[in-house]
Amino acid sequence: MSTKELINNIDSFVSTDVWSPLDPYKDEKIIFQKGDGAYIWDINGKRYVDFINGKGSILLGHNDSDINQLLIESISNKSSTVTGPHQYIVALSEIILRDLKRDHYKIAYFSTGTEAVKASVNMVRMASKKSIILSSGYHGWDPLWYHDNGPHELNKNDILDVFFVPDLLKRAITNNKGNIAAFVISPDYVYLSEKTYNELFSICREHEIYIICDDVKQGYRYRSGNSLEMVGERADLYVFAKGLSNGNRLSCVVGPEQVMEFSRDFTYTSYYELLPYISALGTLKKMRNQNGYMQIRNIGATFLNNLREILKNSPIDMNVNGNGNLFQFVFPNDEIEEKFYRLCLLNGLLFFNGDNQCPNLAITNEVYDFVLKVITQVIEQLSSNYNTGSFSINDERRFISAWRQMDGASDFIDTSDRLIIINKLFSE
Fold first, then answer.
1. Contact 187, 137 (CB under 8 A)
2. Chain centroid to CA 86
3. Pairing of β 237-240 and β 210-214
4. pLDDT tier, 7 (very low <50, low <70, confident <90, very high otherwise)
């Protein structure tokens, strides 16, 4: 079957947008064939350096040989079963609970981050006998989180978004006093300061509100365990997923016994599927043995420093924010942004349009040298096609870029300006 036929059949048969996060490339729709380390190949044999990495779930690299060997051995030994528990659930639970350093905590497993976060919400609602959930950040595609009544109103599922703004959190608590079950926060370490986290968490503790850290994206990416320790904070419950098992389907909720007891009946047919647990054990072991979290950051930091030097002398007003673990490109307008990503794609770089780029451990200095060379050429090409002096990144553009990454209001402009832009985004 030709590539064109495959693409047409996907569009005809599949209802979901399987091209996401490749939306900007829909004119050049890609069907992938294989992956190895830092690279991914399409069905026509073209190679790309992959910075999407399964939306950040591929931490070691595509088809890591050590993880594959563990999976092959398990399949060869016919050790997989979905009938009941196995020893690997115990082994993985011990590691995660040890990393959290919390007494009297328990763990429940799921397949995806989206369902694990939703399960954590159900647990705290049952434990607290309260219904309202305050939210900041992206928690998955589930309609539970949709803003169906506007940005500052409870939705039909009793969810209210406070967009990481302490004043909005205070207002929400005042207006819904006595009926708030939890504050669910998906952390971001590019656009929010430690001070903001300290203030948000202090407000919740003052009012005895459960804090759920949706650490699906950040947990086990910056360090072993939860990411909040980087800003000196702790939550009541944690949700992990993307950093656990190098792309295999596994997530979990970890929390105090008095809350986790409400997950007793949250089991499902594939709860005991063996391979994701084995992959997680192998991934966490390898990341520890190779100091992988710091290695990703340090190698990526060298690349970003070199790139920032190039951008400093470029006529294109373009920034790159973040560090080697996660970073984001910021552009003066949508047109330049779209052309940048398309030109990169044509030259073998696969970026997540508008969102954070997610490096893996297999992206070496040599790979980054190639990436830097391609981006330099792309910037030169863009510069020759635009009167670039007439385009600059303003505060609203910076805010919108942050919004795309964290689904909330960043710290770099005043609260009143943040609220104006939020209302504008929801009115468009």
1. yes
2. 29
3. parallel
4. confident
* pLDDT tens profile 55-79: 999 999 999 999 999 999 999 998 8
Over residues 90-102, the mean pLDDT reads 96
Q: How far is CA 80 from the centre of its chain?
A: 29
CB 132 within 8 A of CB 154: yes
Give me the phi and psi of 28, to 5 degrees please.
-125, 60
Please state whether 287 falls in left (phi above 0), alpha (psi between -120 and 50) or beta: alpha
The rounded distance, in Å, linking the Cα atoms of 6 and 43 is 10
Using only C-alpha atoms, the chain has a radius of gyration, in whole angstroms, of 22
pLDDT computed for residue 203 by the predictor = 98
Q: Residue 21 pLDDT > 80, yes or no?
A: no
Does residue 22 carry a pLDDT above 80?
no
The owner of tokens 């059949």 is 9
Conformational region of residue 107, where left means phi above 0, alpha means psi within -120 to 50, and beta covers everything else:
beta
Token pair listed for 145: 């989180």
Burial track 155-193 (b if 16+ CB lie within 10 A, e otherwise): beebbbbbbbbbebbbebbeebeeebbbbbbbbbbbbbe
Question: Distance (Å, rounded) from C-alpha 426 to C-alpha 137?
Answer: 15
Angle between helices 274-289 and 292-312 (to 10 degrees): 70
Main-chain dihedrals φ then ψ at residue 362, nearest 5 degrees = -80, -10
- Residue 63 φ/ψ region, left for φ over 0, alpha for ψ in the -120 to 50 degree band, beta for the rest: left
Alpha-carbon distance values, 100 to 60, 170, 192, 297 (Å): 22, 28, 23, 22
Dist. CA 296–CA 236, nearest whole Å: 29
| Domains of the chain, CATH where assigned | 3-63+291-393 (3.90.1150.10), 67-288 (3.40.640.10)
Contact 279, 65 (CB under 8 A): no
Q: What local confidence, expressed as pLDDT, does residue 25 receive?
A: 60
**Cβ count near 31 (within 10 Å):** 13
Strand extents, DSSP E, 75-179: 105-110, 132-136, 159-161
Rounded to whole angstroms, how far apart are CA atoms 61 and 29?
23
Q: Strands 105-110 and 32-36: what pairing? A: unpaired
Q: Which among 58, 11, 9, 5 is positioned nearest to 350, based on CA atoms?
A: 58
Residue 214 clears pLDDT 90, i.e. is over it:
yes
